[in-house]
Write a structure and sequence with these properties.
The protein is α/β, with parallel strands linked by helices. The chain has two domains: 150 residues, NAD(P)-binding Rossmann-like Domain (Rossmann fold, 3-Layer(aba) Sandwich), CATH 3.40.50.720; 154 residues, Lactate dehydrogenase/glycoside hydrolase, family 4, C-terminal (L-2-Hydroxyisocaproate Dehydrogenase, Chain A, domain 2, Alpha-Beta Complex), CATH 3.90.110.10. The chain is 42% helix and 18% strand. The protein has a six-stranded parallel sheet, with helices on both faces. A three-stranded antiparallel sheet has the order 11-12-13. The protein is globular, with a radius of gyration of 20 Å. The N and C termini lie far apart (42 Å). The structure holds nicotinamide-adenine-dinucleotide (NAD) and (2S)-2-hydroxybutanedioic acid (LMR). Nicotinamide-adenine-dinucleotide binds next to α6.
Length: 344
């Protein structure tokens, strides 16, 4: 898997030769494979991953290729997408996979997509906060969202690139500028916090994490990650010591491990919503009136039009009310930072 221009062209030639029907050729010749949009092997949704060659992007691509709701999978990156595409495309599952390399293929990658998942950008190194990524990732998200606004304005967007607390407001401003903003279709992925919370709470309770549901609200960084331990299902209670331990561990989970599993589960929930399944509810960072802030993570119900309902926070205990105040303070400045990045 050593992708470069030549390898790309070789893959193009081989793909076109072996299965010309699976490709929708553009008029122009050249690097045809990467310029071709996948037709889709079966009925299902068309999904693009932007940043598909990265640490999150690659396993995400593999797991989305295994998802029966996906008929076409577009893998876009500024490096290495041909090799990743070749690997993933050999999996014997329904979705047709196409690779797209570099800025001039962004539009082809995006055209016709139902769901766009964005894990593009730089990740944290030890000692960094997610906000330290702002300077690089803000510009990347801006450019990619301009592409979305132009080529698939009706797509659901799952924003993974950090700092999510600022990149979601950036995306919203880009879409507003383009006249395509639909707050129901823009979701910051905070599901990893829920997945971690379920796991850590189950550890403390000595139960199966699949049986546990912990709402995590606020945002996706440090104190803005607010697990509502008073609302855990099935109902249970924690000592003050357990509450401190769990809250701190959930808030700092990203320094332990970073993984794609939650992104896959969240994308699957969005697709099940688009299909019309009932009762699809997940936490996400979205435009919201749950608090006085313009964006906030809480439980949302996903449906055919994206977010169909945003759940209120429910009753909070004293510990959570103090946590909420801290979360809102930091969130307000992260949101403002994202908004003014576009407005400046
Ligand atoms: N929200 C979450 O729960 C969550 C979870 C994990 C990671 N993240 C964030 O996701 C991002 C990616 O993390 P990673 O570990 O995959 O990093 P990575 O460096 O392994 O991968 C990032 C990928 O993005 C690509 N990229 C860079 N600029 C691009 C551009 N302009 N267009 C398209 N692709 C571009 C890179 O080439 C690379 O392949 C980071 O910002 C990280 O903090 C968020
Ligand atoms: O923590 C990170 O930097 C990545 C991601 O946001 C996570 O929560 O794992």
């Amino acid at each position: 898997m050593q992708p470069n221009g030549d390898a790309n062209q070789r893959i193009a030639t081989i793909s076109a030769h072996l299965n010309p029907r699976s490709l929708q050729m553009e008029e122009s010749s050249g690097l045809q494979q990467v310029n071709c949009r996948a037709k889709g092997g079966s009925s299902g949704f068309r999904v693009a991953i932007l940043g598909a060659a990265g640490g999150i992007g690659q396993p995400l691509a593999m797991l989305m290729k295994m998802n029966p709701l996906v008929s076409a999978l577009h893998l876009y990156d500024v490096v290495n997408s041909p090799g990743v595409t070749a690997d993933i495309s050999h999996m014997d599952t329904g979705a047709v996979v196409r690779g797209f390399l570099g800025q001039n293929q962004l539009e082809n990658a995006l055209t016709g997509m139902d769901l766009v998942i964005i894990p593009a950008g730089v990740p944290r190194k030890p000692g960094m906060t997610r906000d330290d990524l702002f300077n690089i990732n803000a510009g990347i998200v801006k450019t990619l969202c301009e592409g979305v606004a132009k080529c698939c304005p009706k797509a659901i967007v799952n924003l993974i690139s950090n700092p999510v607390n600022s990149t979601v407001p950036i995306a919203a401003e880009v879409f507003k500028k383009a006249g395509t903003y639909d707050p129901k279709r823009l979701l910051g992925v905070t599901m990893l916090d829920v997945v971690r919370a379920n796991t850590f709470v189950a550890e403390v309770l000595g139960t199966d994490p699949r049986e546990v549901d912990v709402p995590v609200v606020g945002g996706h960084a440090g104190v803005t990650i607010l697990p509502l331990l008073s609302q855990v299902k099935p109902p249970c209670s924690f000592t003050r010591e357990e509450t401190d331990y769990l809250t701190t561990r959930i808030q700092n989970g990203g320094t332990e491990v970073v993984e794609a599993y939650a992104a896959v589960r969240f994308a699957d929930a969005c697709l099940r919503g688009l299909r019309g399944d009932g009762g699809v509810v997940q936490c996400a960072f979205v435009a919201s009136q749950v608090t006085e802030l313009p964006f906030f993570a809480s439980k949302v119900r996903l449906g055919r039009t994206g977010i169909e309902d945003i759940h209120p926070l429910g009753p909070l205990n004293e510990y959570e009310r103090i946590g909420l105040d801290k979360a809102k303070k930091e969130l307000a400045s992260s949101i403002e930072k994202g908004v003014s990045f576009i407005k400046k």
